[in-house]
Specification:
Strand 12 and strand 13 form a beta hairpin. The longest helix is centred in the last third of the chain and has 21 residues. The protein starts with 13 loop residues before the first strand and ends with a helix. By secondary structure, it is α+β, with helices and mostly antiparallel strands. Helix 7 runs antiparallel to helix 8. It is built from 15 helices and 20 strands.
Length: about 475
Amino acid sequence: MDPDGRTPSTGTGFFVAPGKVVTCAHVVPAGRRYVVQYRGEEYDATLLVREPNTGAEANFAYPDVALLSVDVADCAVVPVGSTFPEAGRELYAYGCPLIVRLPVWDHLDLVSEGQRVRDGTTDVFVKTKGSQVQPGASGAGTIDLRTGELVGMLAQTRDAKLDLGGALIPAGTILDVLATAGHDVRAANQEAAADVVTLAGARRRLNLVLQLLAVDLDDAGPVVWRSMLMALDNSPPEGLDAFETALALLNLDLEDLGNALEELARVTRSPAKPIRLLSGAASFAWYAKRPLVEPDTAIQLARERACEEPRVVHLPAACDLTVKLHAGRAAVDQHWEVIPVSIVDAETDAETGLPRRLVTAARWSLLDRDGVLVDEDDPDGIDAAWAQSGAQVRARIGRRLLLVLPATIADTGLVEALRREFAPCMFALAGRSLSAALRRNSALLELSPSLDDVTELAADVRYRQITRKIERASSR
């Protein structure tokens, strides 16, 4: 606004961090009062950055970036991407063009035509087409519909009267300009937008899972991917890749997941990869309108795994499958191998005070996974190898193993001794019941079940039936 209260300039902006709004420099001429309208309320704002800062008049010179500070609680921060939108990518902006001098919010469907450099300069833009960009839409954040992340900001129209699109200031340029001006918002943006559900965000959070699934899908090719997703009654987008196909297999009902993988087995005439995909994706599947693994439980498990001395966890699981699914969903950045360990043993190990066979089995499991050659049936050889390299083995691969014990254990001292002897390895007690003494033990983390025991057993049966259906489909 002008100092006298008139409103000659209107534009659009977006929250790049809590309380920080990005818009175009030409929207906020210097020496004015700035007002941000958000969710029906008006807030006074302070101009922090205006580049170029060429005076009071509106100026469209590059990079045309401004940053405002505004006291707004609970603002929706847009996740900023790190990739340039290649030609053909579908984009979306939500701007406030002036219609008969009144601001009206409007959806702008755009298509990237790729990078453009202004003649005789190093000024980089993203050229777009597909919607009528009118005055007032300047400063609108523009997202890539495939990733859900911001790729640029609308700065100029190609023709205010025709559906020719406009020019975007790339997201990377915006961040660089702000950082140079002393307002690096990258970390704040990532933290604030961490919970925003986007494809790119999902790729980061589910990096390991998606990588493993995508590897098995990669050589199948787009025709097979589309066939799989059609079995889910989906209309797959053009340009589908293995990562997007893998993502489409997550958070499905177990039955639907089975249908897609049965189709994969039918087309490829091989059960191996569909069964591996079932094993990986089932950690995110649903059964009887409940997740097979509660997301919050998986988060607790992953956090505990990252501790220097993780507690023993109680997994309320009646089936081996449930334990494996929990381990699969909690494996955020590193594979987690589940190893059952028996404790049916009356002999006590003199060194540790633990059951002798338990100590030997746990030590051999770690040595074997680290490539140390020793006979599983040679306790003395295992002890010697452990004395020589046990500490290094635990440090190298300890976090990769989940050693599973029966939940019938009632000895709290045993639980505490296991933590000390094998940290940072993690132990789990698997079973529906747990002794009262262990429930009160601070060395144990008790997790909540997602399914009751009857439903869990039914899901286990259905999983095995789906596996057999995949095998039969591959031979048709």
